[in-house]
Specification:
With 369 residues, the protein is α/β, with parallel strands linked by helices. It has 13 helices and 12 strands. A hairpin with a 4-residue loop joins strand 1 and strand 2. The longest helix is centred in the middle third of the chain and has 21 residues. It is globular and about 55 Å long. The mean pLDDT is 96. The structure holds 6-O-phosphono-alpha-D-glucopyranose. The site of 6-O-phosphono-alpha-D-glucopyranose (G6P) has 15 residues, from helix 3. 6-O-phosphono-alpha-D-glucopyranose binds next to helix 3.
Length: 369
């Protein structure tokens, strides 16, 4: 088993460290930075249809649903197509309005999640075109969908999803650019710029992984907490949700992800000196707003752990601990900001003596509803 873990103590840690490679694999043959072009062979036959779609509905569960929220942000930003992100388990039991002009994107690491499969079947009956984003080739979901794009992250053994999540986000980024290209909502020069940077994201993830020792120190400080809040804005919000999910899944610390501005409508009541609050405070369009949210937490003596852009000075003046990630365009921040959060939950869980790879009560894929 040690051999399978490639020298790492747990599959989860191995999979976290595989991300520079898995993201590269996911992009291979799909991006052409010099030409400013994205090619997605799996959905190519629908290229024409993409010019005229009214709406995209993303259905998924768990971590895959969080990837969907990042996708919403990216598709709306670049392709200007309205997106709804639905929990498959809720969607399937509503009477949703679906038309033949809708595209449903089902996201699933395993390709076997029962609720996601049922949501696909329902949308299909109502005439929608279904795309899949899956990690397991030949699984049930890729067989049910009309077309799709594999994430190519390789087998994921740890129950808590890590490399599959970042690969899903990568595919959604490529889909957003592909749709933008089809619809003409992006210029070739803009795509050249974005793809050139995306091409270097694996190296930046490698740099983000270098925060491991510091993250471990932070983990030591907050490992005995009973609660933890994760706050972010914009595309930092789904990152916060995913950070909280990882922590509760494997360390059993109660954690909640929230949009930072919503904090004052509830979670702020929980803040005292015992409460660690993890902020996604990277330099992007919501940076100044996040800073004022950090001040609100500090004023109530909360412990602030901030994920910041390399070289940040503002947040450093306020936060108890800062973990740096390389600078990147806003579109790519979720891929980088997720890395220290994965490491943080991993170290906390190990320190608490939890079974990291197989947390209690959880299954890698939920094939019953
Ligand atoms: C389970 C797993 C999660 C996963 C979710 C959805 O809860 O433990 O890691 O995110 O199912 O699974 P899927 O395979 O559809 O992405």
């Amino acid at each position: 088993e040690m051999l399978e873990k490639g020298g790492f103590d747990h599959f989860m840690l191995k999979e976290i460290y595989e991300q520079p490679r898995s993201i590269k694999d996911c992009m291979r043959g799909r991006i052409y930075p010099e030409e400013g072009k994205v090619q997605l062979g799996g959905i190519k036959e629908f290229a024409e249809k993409l010019k005229n779609i009214d709406r995209i509905i993303i259905v998924a569960c768990g971590t895959s649903w969080h990837a969907g929220l990042v996708g919403e942000y990216l598709i709306e930003e670049y392709a200007r197509i309205p997106v709804e992100v639905e929990y498959a388990s809720e969607f399937r039991y509503r009477n949703p309005i679906i038309t033949e002009k809708d595209v449903v994107i089902a996201i699933s690491q395993s390709g076997e999640t029962a609720d996601t499969m049922a949501a696909i079947e329902m949308a299909k009956e109502r005439g929608a075109t279904i795309f899949g984003i899956c990690n397991v080739a030949g699984a049930s979901i890729p067989r049910l969908t009309h077309a799709g794009v594999y994430t190519h992250a390789g087998p994921e053994i740890g129950v808590a999803s890590t490399k599959a999540f970042t690969a899903q986000v990568t595919v959604l980024t490529l889909m957003a650019f592909y749709m933008a290209q089809q619809k003409g909502t992006i210029t070739t020069s803009k795509l050249i710029e974005l793809l050139t940077e995306l091409d270097h994201i694996p190296e930046k993830i490698q740099v983000a992984l270098e925060s491991n020792d510091l993250v471990k120190e932070v983990a030591e400080k907050i490992k005995d907490s009973t609660n933890c809040l994760f706050l972010g804005r914009g595309s930092g919000f789904p990152v916060a949700l995913e950070g909280a999910l990882k922590l509760k899944e494997i360390s059993y610390i109660h954690a909640e992800g929230y949009p930072a501005a919503e904090m004052k409508h509830g979670p702020i009541a929980l803040i005292d000196e015992e409460m660690p609050v993890v902020f996604i405070a990277t330099q992007n369009s919501s940076y100044e707003k996040v800073i004022s949210n950090i001040q609100e937490v500090k004023a109530r003596k909360g412990k602030v752990i901030a994920i910041v852009t390399q070289g940040d000075t503002e947040v450093k003046k306020m936060a108890d601990y800062c973990i740096e990630i390389p600078d990147a365009k806003e579109a790519f921040l979720p891929l980088l900001a997720t890395i220290p959060l994965q490491l943080l939950s991993y170290h906390i869980a190990v320190m608490r003596g939890c079974n990291v790879d197989q947390p209690r009560n959880l299954a890698k894929s939920v094939t019953v509803e």
